[in-house]
Amino acid sequence: MNTETLIQAIGYFSTVLILISFLMTSVVKLRLLNLAGSIVFVIFAFLTKSYPTAIMNIGLCMINIYFLIRLIRAKRLTTVLPIELDSPYLKTFLDFYRADIHTYFPAFSAETFDGDTAYFVYYDLNPVGLTMGKRQENGELELCLDYAIPKYRDASVGRFLYPHLLGDEGFSALTFPNCSDKHESYLKQMGFRKVGGCYRLEQ
According to DSSP H, which parts of the chain are helical? Predict the structure, then answer.
């Protein structure tokens, strides 16, 4: 492969990365892939001496890095609020994401849910997660649903939700008795430990 062909291959590769990034449902994956594509495009632009293109993609790199850092340090932009179980908005949310919820929480059913607690997690006041559960007499919260929408699934919503439930809401522990395989690795990542057949998180 000669130098000219290699340079063109770099250009096509960066273009493909950027195009694929816009197909990502996760905002984190979108930013990371777009950042990678922009970095490769910067290399291509310098190799072809297309400096305006290089400047533009350097700018895109900085924008992607800024928003990734913003997501990582999103505590001040994240709000956890309770919601009434008979709220029309809650019902609409559950209906809209019904199929995706069933993929990760096959045992959960909005129609047969017998808990008494629901919390929405908001990022920039946009709903990105929903937790529903049952208050226990010992002060624990048994989680029945711990859902994050696809766009923010990689943003570790639980990093903000769980400390809030254990701190501000006063629960002594969080338990998840019916955990699917797809959710198990996430709970472990968030610090839950398996006790018997139940995942448990304490302060």
Answer: 3-21, 27-47, 51-72, 88-96, 98-104, 158-166, 181-189
